[in-house]
Amino acid sequence: MAFAQRFVHRALAQVTRYLTEEKIQEEVQRRIAAHIGPETVAVIGHSLGSVAAFQAAHRSRHRLPLLLTLGSPLGLRTLVYDRIPEAKTIPPRVARWANYADHDDLVAAEPDLAKLFADPYGALESDWTIDNGAEPHRAESYLVKRQIGQAVGTVLA
């Protein structure tokens, strides 16, 4: 099996387990919720973590200035999008949702989430916006980009 096939298979198996095994999903959500409070300015999720971050933002009772998703599979219709129980909209307490994807990131096959998630406030920014070079899905490749620093810096200022 080629490297790309193994990578995609492993990533998709994790997503499937998270979305189909309620105990796993609830434990992940419990852990994220324990870190979100009134002082939280950003929730950042990469890959499967972006799905969990999106769900946590929907469940949160606190205002959230920034939801930042990187290399997100949220746009994969049958694998993720159709399986998430949350409303297909920007989470109601999120002021800005920035979604970044590398053109070669196989996990982020549909980076323009604005096509799929209702955004009545114009708070969702989403498209092919990052070039991670030889490691298109690697979290560190996303985190060192200027656009990511600017998004986080805006809510920290």
Largest sheet: 4 strands, parallel
Count the domains: 1
Gap from first CA to last CA: 47 Å
CATH class: Alpha Beta
Let me know the average pLDDT.
Answer: 91
The secondary structure category is alpha/beta
- Helical region count? 6
The ordered H/E elements are HHEHEHEEHH
Shape designation: globular
* Number of DSSP-assigned strands: 4
CATH topology name: Rossmann fold
Unreliable runs, pLDDT <50, ≥5 residues?
Answer: none
Percent helix among the residues? Answer: 40-55%
What's the arrangement of strands in the largest beta sheet? 1-2-3-4
Question: What would you say this structure looks like, in words?
Answer:
This protein has 157 residues and is α/β, with parallel strands linked by helices. The protein has a single domain (3-156), classed as Rossmann fold, CATH 3.40.50. It is 40% helix and 15% strand. The mean pLDDT is 91. It is built from 6 helices and 4 strands. The chain is globular. It has a 4-stranded parallel beta sheet with strand order 1-2-3-4, with helices on both faces.
